[in-house]
Amino acid sequence: MPLAAKPSANDTFERRMLVFRMKMRGLKHEAISRELNVTTRTVTRDAKWIKEHMREVAASVDKFEELGEAMASLQEISKEAMYQFNETEKASEKNSFLVTAMNATNQRIKMMMEAGIIDKAATDVNLTLDLSKMTTDELEKKRAEVMTRLATQPGGRISAN
Questions:
Q1: 101 near 146, Cβ under 8 Å?
Q2: Which domain holds residue 133?
Q3: Long-range contacts of residues 135-143, Cβ cutoff 8 Å, at least 24 apart
Q4: For residue range 2-17, what is the model confidence (pLDDT) as tens digits?
Q5: Are residues 133 and 82 part of one domain?
Q6: CA-CA distance, 144 to 146, in Å (whole number)?
Q7: Is 45 found in the same domain as 27?
Q8: What is the distance between the alpha carbons of residues 127 and 35, in angstroms, rounded to a whole number?
Q9: 43-79 pLDDT, tens per residue?
């Protein structure tokens, strides 16, 4: 079996950026190697290189793209949780799905505040609720309240779904 051609320096750097992003999302070396179609040894070497060159790697990552992807993922989690909430009849499952949706929404709000997309002072949203102790009705009411507050704040418009 012929050996594969050695990747260019640019290809190697691009792969390392992908490894970095995947590791930041919590993926294990085995999953990364399958996704990128490389050996786990390659991923391990890339991870070691990233650790040694962390400043260079961090400077080359498109922070806006990463923020956008993270926010889109959280929005998708919220949408799916609300879909599952509406599809199930069991109260404990409804609560679980609603808590998931609210947590994802809260994370999006926090990310937007940290990025300066929405004003921290203008939101006035309590993001430290103990959602696990709330009933389904209380959770639904709190979610609607949070979304209404955000929709009425200048610069605070986000999708409720």
A1: no
A2: 63-152
A3: 135/95, 136/91, 136/94, 136/95, 136/98, 139/95, 139/98, 139/99, 139/102, 140/98, 142/102, 143/98, 143/101, 143/102, 143/105
A4: 566 788 888 898 999 8
A5: yes
A6: 6
A7: yes
A8: 35
A9: 999 999 988 888 777 777 777 777 888 888 888 998 9
124: left (phi over 0), alpha (psi -120 to 50) or beta: left
- Same-domain pairing of 67 and 98: yes
Supply the pTM of this predicted model.
0.48
Q: Between helices 29-36 and 9-24, what is the axis angle to 10°?
A: 140
In 3D space, the residue among 143, 125, 122, 147 whose CA is nearest the CA of residue 134 turns out to be 143
How far is 68 from 53, CA to CA, in rounded Å? 24
Q: Are 81 and 134 contained in the same domain?
A: yes
pLDDT surpassing 70 at residue 129 = no
Please determine, for residue 83, whether its predicted confidence score (pLDDT) is greater than 80. Answer: yes
pLDDT above 90 (res 117):
no
